[in-house]
Amino acid sequence: MRTGVIAKKVGMMGLFQENGDRIPVTVLEIDSTVIDTRTKEKDGYTAVQLGSGKIKEKNVAKPQKGHFAKLKQEPKKTLVEFRVSEDCIVPAGSVIGANHFVVGQLVDVVGVSLGKGYAGVMKRHNFHGDCASHGVSRTHRAGGSTGNREWPGRVVKNRPMPGQLGNEQVTVQNLEVVAVDEARNLIMVRGGVPGYDGATVLVNDAKKRAKQAVGPVPAGLKASEVKEEVKAEPVAEAAAPAETEVKE
């Protein structure tokens, strides 16, 4: 079982396929750094702790400051722990990139839905409402009877009632990965994802589709561009004087 990732919902757009069909996709920007790991010998279970987002040092609580200082990691705004199998533990300090997923793979996305405030039963639970005629007055959108007098003599639990709509954790399962952009660290999934543009979401391999294509194991790590540039510069500088001396 591989680790999931922390991503930011960029927004939605239309993507044209080779056959000309235009499909709606949600663009997700992956931002996940491995902060710490959990092992069975030390903690009793195996997991990977990921961090995402930048945060000012003054806004970090003292316990979290000590946690990051002990691990010699930069403080992160969001910390999430993902359970993994022993063969999928990723070392601390690794950065997971968009190549963690492949085109055609199915994923589950967890996010917080948009809050819509206080709503009635017709909007919140899809009640059809009362009659529009036959003597009905001022109760067209009411919920009707909520309980009986003799039995049960109370309102039963889980009775659909008016209340807050949205602003709750929602999991959308089996979304297809349509495109992967490793250069910009983006993946595009078919369909909608809960939350507003810029919200933090969690992306996991689809749990109900075990026999499907998955990305690299233990994880798709992002290549370090800084190290490549540092190695390339000295070689270029050393080669230039050698050519000049030969010409002279």
What is the arithmetic mean of pLDDT? 87
Q: Please compute the radius of gyration using only Cα atoms.
A: 26 Å
Helical fraction equals 10-25%
CATH class value of the largest domain: Mainly Beta
> By helix and strand content, what is the structural category?
alpha+beta
State the end-to-end CA separation: 63 Å
> How many domains is the backbone divided into?
2
Count of alpha and pi helical runs: 4
Please describe the biggest sheet, giving its number of strands, its sense, and whether it closes into a barrel: 6 strands, antiparallel, barrel
Strand order of the largest sheet: 1-2-11-10-7-12
Query: What order do the SSEs take from the amino end to the carboxyl end, as H and E?
Result: EEEHEHEEEEHEEEEH
CATH architecture of the largest domain: Beta Barrel
* Assembly state (oligomeric): single chain
Sequence stretches where pLDDT stays below 50 over 5 or more residues: 225-242
* Overall geometry: globular
CATH topology value of the largest domain:
Elongation Factor Tu (Ef-tu), domain 3
